[in-house]
Design brief:
The structure holds two protein chains of two kinds. Chain A is mostly beta strands. Chain A has no helices and eleven strands. The N and C termini of chain A lie far apart (41 Å). In chain A, 36% of the residues are buried. Chain B has no helices and eleven strands. In chain B, strand 5 and strand 6 form a beta hairpin. The chains are: A mainly beta, B mainly beta.
Chain lengths: 113, 115
Amino acid sequence: GESVGLHLPTLSVQEGDNSIINCAYSNSASDYFIWYKQESGKGPQFIIDIRSNMDKRQGQRVTVLLNKTVKHLSLQIAATQPGDSAVYFCAEKSSGGSYIPTFGRGTSLIVHP
Amino acid sequence: DAGVIQSPRHEVTEMGQEVTLRCKPISGHDYLFWYRQTMMRGLELLIYFNNNVPIDDSGMPEDRFSAKMPNASFSTLKIQPSEPRDSAVYFCASSLTSQGNTEAFFGQGTRLTVV
């Protein structure tokens, strides 16, 4: 079946640097995407979402970019802080379907002080 | 709202024993999901309910796994008999379908260890 996957399992950055986490999806019918952050010992938490009629959406220090042509999603974190260290997942929803969060393996972001 | 509440937080059991995991979704949410997380497979969807009715249980690994949702505020995931390979973190999540955000809210998880 179609699935969501992540390119990089681990990303190490220095505090203050910008981080970019990538996600590839294969379901061209997907119309809604979400980034989750999972800290150690906790469940995934919502960070930001984007609908397929948008290319970019900004939050506080985070930006999500959507490229539907190549079915690629990215999460950019500005001025990365130690508290950003976590595993990041992208999830998708298919157009017209129920919202069933489907996750890839995740990318571990490690921020060095 | 206190969010999605799962119990217990940790469970250690012997192989062959029955294990029951519990979940209280966010009040008013109409979808409830059970996930299993391991290092090898990441987050796997086991089963989900809509308005207390199981919709898709194709992710349930074996007949040893069963899930119920007797009412809108409670769900259980049962493993009987448990095996060491069932060791994982089990998450419950709930969501509210709407025109707006439809993200799922996750509980803190239950870490299951089967020895």
